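Uracil-DNA glycosylase family protein, Halovivax cerinus. Tokens?
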Amino acid sequence: MTHLTDRRSNPFGLTPPFDRSDESAVPAVFGYGDPNADFHVIGDRPGVHGGSTSGIPFALGRRETPLTSLLRSVDFLSDDADGPHLDDCFLSYIHMCTLPAGTEPTADSYARLERFFDAELRAVNAHVLVPIGRRATARVVESYTTRRTRIELDMDALHATEIRGRGFLVVPLADPDRWDESLVARASDRFESILSSDYRQTKGVATTVG
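Tokens:
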């Protein structure tokens, strides 16, 4: 599928029900990047993974982090006059709306935003899903694989492993603030291995999922 848009942020024009946010925060941190990407990196929410000020998931472009270093190492991330540029990679959150500092979203809040994340995931229609952290991994494994009851959510053990999903290859990563040199190397090696393979054979029809 080819998306006729050059918008990096919220290319699909989602309009979720915004939660109350701090005055300095954006109402929501929408998906960002290449809408035709083969790799979809999925985080929890702005309060956990950043972006409530910049409006870009994982606060991309604000500072160099282990995640941005990984994305640069596999040529997904570069910079231009308009800011961070992603090629073949899209970033988004399962809970895109922001909340006041110190406020935790409820289960109902996650459920209310579920259809917006699903719509974004189906629109991108990536081959490889890369959930980051325990909550995003649980959501992706439960919704897009048949193995939720057979997988222990030990993120250090799951980090940079491959899980065959229902039309997707799922590659979970631990939270980047926990990465040491060994976890960075495992993630980099896994991405390089996938990129050198015929990973597109793992893809099914995403619109039939769910």
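The chain has six helices and eight strands.
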